[in-house]
Design a protein that fits this description.
By secondary structure, the chain is of the alpha+beta class. The chain has helices at about 5-10, 30-40, 70-75, 135-145, 165-175, 180-185, 190-195, 210-215, 250-265, 285-300, 345-350, 360-370, 410-415, 420-435, 440-450, 450-460, and strands at about 20, 50-55, 85, 90-95, 100-105, 115, 120-125, 125-130, 200, 205, 225-230, 240-245, 270-275, 280-285, 310-315, 315-325, 380, 385-395, 465-470, 475-480. The protein has a 6-stranded mixed sheet with strand order 12-11-15-16-18-17, covered by helices on one side. A hairpin with a 5-residue loop joins β17 and β18.
Length: about 475
């Protein structure tokens, strides 16, 4: 709170955008508009504003005697709900021989625009007024800049010694900064890291992104930062655990280790006879498809959560689940065509290290790779608010005998039986839609033991069946 000496200086101050003097004690609208305007801090001075009750415009005191009732009335402005977001303010009484002053000290809000009864007030010099559209847009942009993502925030308690600076200097910086520029850069390592959002000079500590990407022991600060692999016997999580492994450490070490494990321990290849004298090699999952999904899980996960990334392998499918649902502009109705980044600094670093491309093509490429390998399409569950889940199914050849999880066998039967099964499937799809107009193509594929691609192909032929609406809010309609 301001001191008595500082208050006397402020009474005569020319910084009129920070001060409002008044002799009134009952004009609550005026008081709240002033507090709202100080909270918005349109000049972006980052200085506190002061509503001074008991002083004339020229700075002389009016002789006011401040009682407890007046103090309570002004202090109640903070939480009465008329000003939103709630202002950061304190109220104090100062006694002088000429009279008392009641001062409300207001800090600039980190979440502008602040509104009083739905209207945004700002100060332009000594005048208080309602913000124009352009001024309100400035405040909205400032709000966005204040709201740093988690990876950009300081990792309080960490120091430069908690980051592998040798790797950063020798391997990472040469990838992200021009060689000549780097050679002429005489700044110390903290300032260099601050320039790429990996160090917070104000708090003298690395950012969360630096710990996640290059930390010596990230789990000391982020306990949930690891990948849990479990191989279950059977097709459900209730099966016997056949293998278990934990991947941890900074991303620059974890990601290549994870890539190697997927290639050697998850991807399998075996020969399948296609004639008496010929055979072909079949893999259970395309390596690059799993790689893409795991890199996206590391890039988009919510690192504030204590839940690890789950990589669960079953007899017929793989489940990948990470903390954090769809983020920002990405929503169930526009997924996967719209993308947004929960961790933009981590995403940029992974791009520079050639793990992702940030072209928003990952999911489309995954589905294409699965299709080329005769896998079913991956099923993405974006309905959960706090997690993101994807299931990838093995090729039909990799599934135990008698189980038809794949799509190739179904199409072959259709071709060899003169279209009989084609017609039966068309009729079956129509009956399922009559029962449940909101049924999804993934649900139809699961119920019929067909691939999603097969269901979509049959739906495309059924011209009397139309999908109305978009995403999960839409439904099927059958024209009579």
């Amino acid at each position: 709170m301001i001191t008595k000496d500082e208050l006397q200086e402020l009474l005569q101050s020319t910084e009129t955008y920070r001060v409002e003097r008044t002799t009134s004690t009952g004009d609550m609208d005026k008081f709240q508009e002033a507090i709202c305007a100080f909270s918005n801090d349109l000049p972006n001075s980052r200085k506190n504003g002061y509503l001074i009750i008991g002083a004339h415009d020229n700075g002389t005191l009016s002789g006011l005697k401040v009682d407890d009732a007046l103090m309570k009335k002004i202090a109640a402005i903070r939480s009465d709900g008329n000003i939103l977001p709630l202002p950061i303010m304190s109220v104090e009484r100062f006694e002088f021989p000429e009279g008392d002053l009641l001062v409300a000290e207001v800090s600039p809000s980190l979440l502008p625009p602040v509104r009083y009864r739905g209207r945004t007030f700002v100060r332009v010099g000594p005048r208080r007024d309602i913000a124009t559209e352009a001024e309100e847009r400035i405040l909205l942009e400032r709000r966005t800049s204040y709201m740093a993502t988690f990876d950009a925030m300081p990792c309080l308690g960490a120091s430069i010694n908690d980051v592998d600076t040798n790797y950063i200097k020798q391997d990472y910086l040469p990838q992200v900064i021009d060689t000549e520029v780097l050679a002429s850069d005489r700044r110390d390592i903290k300032e260099q890291l601050a320039s790429i959002h990996l160090y917070d000079l104000t708090h003298d500590c690395p950012t969360n992104a630096a710990i996640i990407l290059f930390g010596n022991n990230p789990r000391h600060f982020l306990p949930g930062f690891y990948i849990q692999f479990v191989r279950f016997a059977g097709k459900t999580i209730g099966g016997q655990v056949l293998n278990e492994k934990r991947f941890q450490g900074p991303l620059y070490r974890l990601l290549p280790e994870l890539e190697l494990f997927v290639s050697n321990a998850i991807i399998t290849q075996r020969p399948i006879a296609i004639s008496l004298f010929r055979e072909k090699a079949v893999i259970n999952y395309p390596n690059n498809a799993l790689r893409e999904l795991l890199m996206n899980a590391c890039m988009h996960r919510d690192y504030q959560s204590n839940m690890p990334i789950r990589l669960y392998q079953f007899d017929d499918h793989i489940e990948i689940m990470n903390a954090g649902g769809l983020y920002g502009e990405a929503r169930p109705e526009n997924f996967p065509t719209v993308n947004d980044y929960r961790n933009p600094i981590i995403a940029e670093a992974m791009k520079e290290m050639k793990y992702v491309n940030m072209f928003n093509q990952g999911i489309r490429r995954v589905q294409e790779m699965l299709q080329d390998n005769n896998n079913k399409e991956a099923v993405f569950d974006v309905s959960k608010l706090t997690v993101f889940e994807v299931n990838v199914f093995s090729t039909v050849e990799d599934v135990p005998q008698g189980d038809t999880q794949g799509d190739t066998h179904d199409d072959t039967q259709d071709d060899t039986q003169g279209g009989t099964q084609e017609n039966n499937l068309d009729l079956w799809i129509e009956n399922q839609i009559k029962k449940n107009p909101k049924v999804t193509t993934e649900e139809l594929a699961s119920l019929s033991n067909k691939g999603v691609a097969t269901i979509k192909r049959h739906l495309a032929k059924l011209s009397h069946i139309k999908y109305v609406g978009s995403g999960y809010s839409g439904h099927w309609e059958i024209e009579e």
